[in-house]
Amino acid sequence: MSKHTNARKELFMKALLQGKTIKSAAETVGVTEQTAHTYLKDPTFKAEYRQLKSDALQEATDYIQSVTRAAGEVLFQQMNNRKASPRTKIDAAQRLIEFALRIRQENEVLQRIEALEAKLEKTKES
Description:
- The chain is mostly helical.
- Helices cover 87% and strands 0% of the residues.
- Helix 1 crosses helix 2, helix 2 crosses helix 3 (33-41) and helix 4 packs antiparallel against helix 5.
- The longest helix is centred in the C-terminal third of the chain and has 40 residues, at 86-125.
- It is flat.
- 6% of the residues are buried.
């Protein structure tokens, strides 16, 4: 495989990661749609694409988590703002409660997944 082909595969993958359709990504990098589908069937390509997509999602998640505290503080300030209307205070309180419940649920699901993964790992070792 030539360096030119590898460069096109990489550009195609980047175009997909930017949210382009397969057809649009293929056109962007100058390959046919059939070639694009051939790339997508390649196990190495699929694994790398999946990893890059996962990395991008994790990066976005990390950013959202980093600003979550500040968002919570804004809601808390609004909830305690003496000049805010009762409706605004109730909305802020409601959002804080919903947020706390969602975090709790996500943590519970994560713990269950980790427990299942540990059991699966033990099963594989046996």
